Give the backbone structure.
Amino acid sequence: MGRTMAEKVYDAHVVRRAEGEPDLLYIDLHLVHEVTSPQAFDGLRMAGRPVRRPDLTIATEDHNVPTTDLLKPIADPVSRAQVETLRKNCAEFGLRLHPMGDAGQGIVHVIGPQLGLTQPGMTVVCGDSHTSTHGAFGALAFGIGTSEVEHVLATQTLTQNRPKTMAVTVDGALPAGVTAKDLILAIIARIGTGGGQGHVIEYRGEAIRSLSMEGRMTVCNMSIEAGARAGLIAPDETTFEYLKGREHAPAGVDWDRAVEYWTSLRTDDDAVFDREVVIDAAELTPFVTWGTNPGQGLPLGASVPDPASYDDPAARQNAERALEYMGLTAGTPLREIAVDTVFVGSCTNGRIEDLRAVADVLAGRRVADGVRMLVVPGSMEVKKKAEEEGLDEVISAAGAEWREAGCSMCLAMNPDKLTPGERSASTSNRNFEGRQGPGGRTHLVSPAVAAATAVTGRLAAPLDLGAAAGGSGGSSPQNETDL
Amino acid sequence: MEAFTTYTGRAVPLRRSNVDTDQIIPAVWLKQVSRTGFDKGLFSAWREDPDFVLNQPQYQGAGILVAGPDFGTGSSREHAVWALQQYGFRVVIAPRFGDIFRNNATKMGLLPVVLPAETVEALQAGAERDPAAELTVDLEAREVRGADGTGLAAPFEIDDYTRWRLLEGLDDIGLTLRHADRVGEFEKARPAWLPVTA
């Protein structure tokens, strides 16, 4: 019987297999940031252990970094201490670090692919659940806790059990105006926040194949929100095109060998997945969340659901609590929900295409009065590219704030946060209670919906907007089917 | 890691599902670089509500948390496990756990016990009826039991290897380093095109 791609990549990294024990799995790339690593480095020091492969490890500062005033020291002493601890640890253990202000700095899941360090068939880990992002390249990539960070630093391996596999096949073409973010939010709403638990999801089908690498990263990024530790997509010409010529991508003869190997990783025709879900792309529309977990989402054209409509008591209770926290009333059309803040950024939607989508909508338009909009590039490299393309000028001219790179308001560890009761439309990945600041209320949206929402002040898609006052905004074809 | 064999103590019913790790320990608490002091951050937003179950005097000192499905979803922060342990929990019982949380818990000696939703509901109801009632969580026998006479005995599954590691309190890194030579052999066979960060 054939094997799935996840099984092929997994099997190729088994260092040791013994009856009754988990496998020992080799890790090709370990990404490190300031929040989940200090206790791991402490553990190494206490045991007198070195980092086994500093050359397979890379660190950056992202979670805590301010997105303004990069030249000043971090104002929050606790955040500053954490960042300084990472610097000391990287110096002591000999690790490459991209610190705040460095041209290579950015969100850990943006810089790996950007450098060409993330490649098909690799195993990639990081003390961060959104490591699943790297699966877009056909890498087996998953988040780990601090004990495992220490384990990888010390041994370059992890103990693992062969994962179960799940296929999410998206047939047909995505309607115009429907993005990768809408797709993954719809998938999570369909299978639930625990739907992928214990599985690696392979996303397949025409709609997936036609996504850019950036769109694929958005999809794989949120696999964890469906409970799956990893999501992956078969490498193809789109993948190779993205990788070729990047700093750490193979070159010359190595490139040809690598492409041959990468191509062999695709799931065999006779392979069997433990679970399969099929989604019809044609049915999808812009999708937003209304509740406090990423599975609580609906098409933008829908209304806030009535908790009484849920058969499952846990889901009903969850919905009741979510509406209370979110300050929403059942039956309210989602398009009538007014927001205070719009956040564009994060490892989900902080890449160049996301910023282009935002600028396309904002061109010739203004952010609504009373709405604050933050646009935070995923990396300094993304920021530089956006500025070369003039996106920053379009975004600033619309009245939005153009910031420096970092995780920012996705998890509010830096000064960018919501105040209690404040409501956001956010391109990030989690609408958990308090995620963007204590008492903050989050609606997860795509970059295009975020920009349209900023303009109207209420949840909206670009097609809801009238013609722009000037410029090219809203000129892209839209065909939202739930209007 | 702290070894786990058997724990007998009282239970706290947390009647919520999808308790994500941002609720267990909000991000503001993750800025610390030490491994201690996280007990104060446990459910810190929810604890502001005086009616929250952990604020009720009858549940003080309980060592077993009984929660709804999908406990520990979301972020990979191991701080969630540290916070639960430092607050005094030795066991979390739920119908389903987030994968990373469950894995982190077993690395630290906090026992995650999966029981069917009906059993979890019964345990929650029991803890509400009689907050002083004790449960025994027996890892050797893979069983949760009520006090004598209650007739409650719920078997749970846990793989042999994880059970052995927890019973012995073994450090994973030490176990892996016994196979360092195998890791070295594997490294020699890795394809030349694979990237290095240096």
